[in-house]
Amino acid sequence: YRLFPAADWDTKGANGVDIIPVIDLKGGVVVHARRGDRAAYRPIETPLSASAEPVAVAAGLMALHRFRRLYVADLDAIQGQGDNRAAVTAIHAAFPALELWVDRGIATPAAAREWIGQGLGPVVVGSESSQDLGTLLATLAAGGRDAVLSLDHRGDDFQGPRALIDRPGDWPRRVIAMTLARVGSGAGPDFARL
User: Fold this and answer.
1) Cα angle 91, 97, 98; round to 5
2) Which residue of 53, 112, 135, 188 shows the fewest CB atoms closer than 10 Å?
3) Beta partners for residue 23, in sequence order
4) What does the CA dihedral 155, 156, 162, 163 come to, rounded to 10 degrees?
5) Three-state SS for 50?
6) How big is the chain by its Cα radius of gyration, in Å?
7) 0.90 cut: is pTM over it?
8) From CA 72, how far away is CA 29, in angstroms rounded?
9) How far is residue 114's CA from residue 142's CA, in Å, rounded to a whole number?
10) Residue 147, φ and ψ in degrees, nearest 5
C-alpha cells in the first residue's frame, strides 16, 4: 500500500490521510508485489477474490469500501515488456466511477497525451521512467492539472533525475512517495520519506 495526503479530497481517513488501494499487474493478472523484486512477483492469493483476475480483485476491494481511486501499476508497461491496457479497460468498464491512477511507464509528452485520450484516468508519471528532467517535466505538463507524480526510491536511492527532488515547485498537486523496498514487505508506510 501507499499513502497519499488527503489535501482536498472528501473521503479522509484517520489523521487526514486517504487510503488508496493498489494493484500490480503483470502478465494480465494481479501479482503480489514484494520489495520491488519484479522478477519474483507471482499471482496474488487473497481472500478478496477467488482468482488473480484484475476485475475480480478490484471487485473484492470495492466490496470492502467504496473507494474513489485505485492505483494500478502496469509492471509490463513500466518495464517495456507489453502492457495490461485490456485489464485496465475492463476495470474501468466494471467500475466507471472509480478513478484509476495507472502508472504505465509514461515518459514522453506524446505518451501522456495518448493516455489522456483513452479516458482511463489521469497521467501518472513515475520518476523511475525518465532520467531526463526536461522530458519528465514536459510529460507532467502534458498530463495537465490532474497529473500525478510518483517519486520513486529504491532504498535511499532516488530513481530518476536527482534534480527533481530539489524542485518541488515543479511537482503537480498530487505526489506519490514510493519506496519500492517497502512494497509488500509488511513494514508499513515509509513515514520518514513521506
Assistant:
1) 55
2) 188
3) 72
4) 130
5) coil
6) 16
7) no
8) 12
9) 10
10) -60, 150
Helix axis angle, 54-64 to 85-94, nearest 10°: 40
Q: Which amino acid is at 75?
A: L
151, with CB counted inside 10 A (0-12, 13-18, 19+), is: buried
pLDDT for residue 189: 73
User: What nine digits make up the cell of 135?
Assistant: 522530458
Segment 148-192, tens digit of pLDDT? 999 988 878 899 999 999 999 999 999 988 887 667 666 677 777
**Close Cβ partners of 187 (under 8 Å, ≥ 6 residues apart):** none
Q: At what angle do helices 133-142 and 109-118 cross, to 10 degrees?
A: 20
> Given the DSSP bridges, would you call strands 29-32 and 42-43 parallel, antiparallel or unpaired?
antiparallel
Least confident of 65-69, 142-146, 180-184: 180-184
Residues paired with 153 in a beta bridge = 158, 179
d(CA 117, CA 98): 17
Is 62's pLDDT higher than 80? yes
Q: CA-CA distance, 89 to 3, in Å (whole number)?
A: 24
C-alpha cell at 187: 513494514
